[in-house]
Amino acid sequence: MVFEGLADKLQATFKKLRGRGKLSEADVADAMREVRLALLEADVNFKVVKDFVAKVKERSVGLEVMSSLTPAQHVIKIVNEELTALMGGTQSRITISSRPPTVIMLVGLQGAGKTTTAGKLAHMLIKQNKRPLLIAADIYRPAAIKQLQVVGERLGTPVFSLGDKESPVTIAKKGVEHAISLGRDVVIIDTAGRLHINDELMDELANIKQQAKPHEILLVVDAMTGQDAVSVAETFNGRLGLDGVILTKLDGDARGGAALSIKAVTGCPIKFVGMGEKAEALEPFHPDRMASRILGMGDVLSLIEKA
Amino acid sequence: MGFFDKLKSGLEKTRKGLTENIDRLVGGYAKIDEELLDDLEAILLAADIGVKTTAKLIADIKEGIKTKAITTPQEMRPFLSGRITEMLCAGSVEAPVRSPGMPYVIMVVGVNGVGKTTTIGKLGSFFAQHGQKVLFAAADTFRAAAIDQLEIWGKRSGLEVIKQAENSDPAAVAFDACQAAKARHADFLIIDTAGRLHTKSNLMEELKKVERVVAREIPSAPQEILLVLDATTGQNAINQAKLFSQVVRVSGVVLTKLDGTAKGGVVIAIKHELGLPVRWIGVGEGIDDLRPFDPVDFANALFGDK
Ligand SMILES: Nc1nc2c(ncn2[C@@H]2O[C@H](COP(=O)(O)OP(=O)(O)OP(=O)(O)O)[C@@H](O)[C@H]2O)c(=O)[nH]1
Ligand SMILES: Nc1nc2c(ncn2[C@@H]2O[C@H](COP(=O)(O)OP(=O)(O)OP(=O)(O)O)[C@@H](O)[C@H]2O)c(=O)[nH]1
Ligand SMILES: [Mg+2]
Ligand SMILES: [Mg+2]
Description:
By secondary structure, chain A is of the alpha/beta class. Chain A is 50% helix and 13% strand.
């Protein structure tokens, strides 16, 4: 992989560096180029990369080179600290309303993993002794309702559906009412995948929000997303006001630069990550792990942390 | 709307991003300098073309400047569009030919949620509209309601779906489907497979087994194995293409969801680095939202006016 070499490349970059003293602007210029490339290879949005590298550069120039760390390790340390800080602390929690039911709404592009994640959240909540209800508000995708019903059946969780003839807004509203009548304390609304540029369907989400009054609107994002993650997240956030992000399909080898991009442009916390197709495969988000994943160098980092 | 117009409208956003930026760029610079090249690089990167291929394109531009193929900023865009077309066309592989009397088998593979089943629905409709007899095989026996989803697509074009119970062996479904395709004299058999991440070796083995069974039942089948890639995907698509190709004989790519704002530029890298041609593009969720891929049209649509 292109990127595993970042540590080596930085090492090589600083080879010319003799003596101790402070790192000059010229000293770090080449190193910043390597950092930039590494982040771009990880699918971090190029604008985010630009700002990020500027920040790292600012901290690196004039740095006293200590004996315990090589200049390369120093820069990596700074990159890692900045990455972790940018991605925020751990906030892997769903706000539970004091007046049940807590309403959670999942939104996102087509195929991101919303329906699967709805099942995973229900599973997690059941383990916390909650009694969730799933709402099938995707009336467009062939067999979307059936898919959610199968998911619900496996978990022993009821699924509210009005078929595919009622509007998703009505379904969501009646679903919440139904949850109240059944005494279910959490409601998870599965919405259809849609493009952020589809105004009509984005309006539909805004209407669902108005009617169902969700406590949490979570954007489900595929970890393999490239440069477009930024415009997607910005638009969904602008229209709906997101409370958090769930990053799916992290069980593969995607670097997941989208995580950084989305956090940087929306400020929304990443709450959970999807690590597989099964209901149990939902984990809390760890910014530090994500940082070393984006950098592709877990080992190097643990060495530096010890130094 | 003709084919090119539809393609163009599907790629509107793609084109807007790239072309308008370049135009704005070019308008704002009197002469070619480092800053212009840097901004151009940013535009290419934003299209998911990737660091490596972008570096190559920038190097080509520099070479073009040196050899006077480019003398003004205005000449940059046609030059770049030409280079990308060349990259996409280089060593173009013809789609395999059909042998008469035998079903032409297309296996559709890819990671989770990219649009495999939808693409199959569209492909089936496309072939059926051209008077071909098409069968579907529901070899995704894993995902919740995957079989129902394919059946709905089949119904839309009046196509039969060969299936077994949920969680049955995908290779067994493929075997049944091959038998059915031969017995019913189908022209096309299109096999849906479960989404799987390319890093999961057990699931990749399963795919190999499906390919093997098909090859055993029908000579020189599967004639095509299409890898479906989501245009929203970034550089990971290269890993996907690499690893799927290592396991099964991928013959081409379907690039879906080009109706969004994602540029799908990674296919240029995939063609450039792996030689895998794009065969079809998906430009929506409707049954007719599939187009044959034309490299020249793609590059033209990417860079605006023809
Ligand atoms: N490997 C892996 N696959 C996942 C994960 N989350 C979801 N998937 C798979 O991704 C595919 C799409 O998931 P869905 O839940 O149907 O996605 P969706 O967002 O509801 O899709 P639409 O409703 O069509 O927009 C399925 O094959 C899921 O099994 C994950 O964390 N890891
Ligand atoms: N906008 C848009 N959406 C598409 C396109 N192709 C597929 N989709 C949508 O993407 C989502 C996933 O499509 P599927 O066909 O179920 O994907 P898949 O690869 O079969 O998914 P798994 O079987 O779960 O791996 C659905 O909501 C489709 O409607 C396209 O070209 N444009
Ligand atoms: Mg869904
Ligand atoms: Mg499918």
